[in-house]
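User: My collaborator sent over this chain with a note saying "see what the structure looks like." That's all I know about it. Can you take a look?
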Amino acid sequence: MRRFFRIFTFCLGVIAIVGGGAFLIVHPATPLPDHWNPIKPMRISDPVTPLTSWKLSRVGNDPEHCPAVLEDGARFDILSDFRVSDACHIETRVRTTALANVALRSTETRCDTALTTALWLEHGVQPAAQDIFGQRVASIRTQGSYNCRTIGGSSRMSTHATAAAIDVAGFTLADGTRIELLDDWGDGGPKGAFLARVRDASCDWYATTLGPDYNRAHADHFHLQTRGWGLCR
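Assistant: Without extra context I'll predict from the sequence alone. Here is the result:
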């Protein structure tokens, strides 16, 4: 009887915990912040939590929800999917000229690539710029996203062939100061420190980051891709 009572009490406790958790998640008056609530849509400007990556994975390839999240500080057009072949195509295609209130030249890419870039800009690039220069980044210089080609020196298709990558070559601060990877990487000053910090921050958001430390082919840009095995160089 005592054993039965202990099991019964334990089960009641589990039910209470689960029920309380469900209440916190679904009740309209929940005190749980949206960025901690798994059923609330993510926002680019939300503080980063352990749920952020999970929320990103849920909306990244969703043609309805991804653009809705991307709208936070972005200027873009939703385009129809583009397909040359099974190896070369852009799904959930968008053309963007601003992400997370940062301007860039008109770039066609996947919505999840654009969304990941916006999160990196908001939570990695801008904090670094504020800490080192005391001002925001106004624009980035990209070298494009989609390119139906193989990886240099191999027969493997590049992630650019499906727009799952974007190349970033430089940044312009609010006061017009330009920061270029080709000129400023490893210079020992604030520009070099900024580039190293945003490279490191990109590894929190992208599956693969390749830059000047990787090889000469990346001396003038960061190759940032949403697929890969965690390489960060």
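A starting point for your reply to your collaborator: The beta strands are 75-78, 82-83, 89-90, 93-99, 102-110, 137-142, 165-173, 178-180, 208-210, 222-225.
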